[in-house]
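Quick one, T. Sequence first:
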Amino acid sequence: MLAVSILIVYSNTFNASFHFDDTHVIVENHDIRDLGNLGDILTGHRGVTMATFAVNYAISGLDVTSYHVVNILIHIIASILAYIVVFNTLQMTTKNNDWSKKIAAFSALLFALHPIQTQAVTYIVQRMESLSSLFYLAGIALFIAAIRSKSQTKRIVFYASVVAAYLLGFYSKEIAITMPAVIILYDLFFVSGGSFKPVIKRWPLYAVLFSLMIALTAAAVIPSGGFNDLSQEASGIVAAEAKPVTGSKAPSAGFGVQSITPAEYLYTQFNVIVYYMALLTVPVNQNLDYDFPISRGLFEVPHVNEGTVLNIPIPPPVISLLILLAIAGLGVYLFLRARAREDKRGLVVSFFIFWFFIILAPTSSILPIIDVIFEHRVYLASLGFFVIFAICFDYFFQWLEDRKKAKA
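Structure tokens:
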């Protein structure tokens, strides 16, 4: 059902042309035109994704159809993995298979078909985002499989596969850097009953994951200036190599960005995250290239350029900060409350609140990126929003049904 629904929704995109970053990453990139370069490509910047572009080129040259087929296939697999992760999580907390299937299916369907995913699926170069997310979800699914396995040998194999998924995700796009944090949080919430003692028993896995996180940050994220999106105009990275661009080109990410300071970027991101939530709630006025207002002060209303169309009025960043702190506080409250109750739905809501914030952290913190907002950045984080929405939606109608029965 998920696959068919996705194919129907994206059936008109198979001939969508190359746009923007597609040009220098794919069309003008001669490295991907020879599979003999595959070794160099795989060891280069975002090598796993770049290798898939090389395979696409070998199949169809610059005919866009095969590129879109792969992008849609990645989205289908990611949506199926989203269902698996959500279902297993709900099943662990409620032991109610029917309810778990219902909520997982609803969440995965929203993840699969919501308009905010269009950029990550249809904009060919943003296969980087969706492929990285696929491996991210696969890593969590493999961790769940390891936890459930009764065989020590199988458990070790699954743990090794988690590490492999982490590396594949990172070398698809660096946003996968946060996967160890999400896995250890998952362990704490759903496996170890909120206690750190059982978590520590899995120290070999976490030692490997967090050592890799530090090494990858030092080897790839810091030299490239952060989590940039390869914008052609100002990129500090060329498509298949992790080389800083020297000369007159300014960096597109990192503390060397001159158009926005780290503090201004952070203030702007408070509003950006709230805006992502607005788009997830009401997906209208979507844009590939937003003219989003930069916040120069925590208490100042940012200037919106004439002609800019946005979903909501952009407030002083302090307002958005208070909203985000309230949501994070709710996550903490639900976690503490759920530990003392049999009904663990609040625990799931709490986890996916933190899921949303952690996954957005690389692109929505103090590390500036010249483009302050892109819809593809919320691709994986959106799953948290959809799970919470599905649980609240179901709870509301259950409440209405209970009220009717009470009045009868």
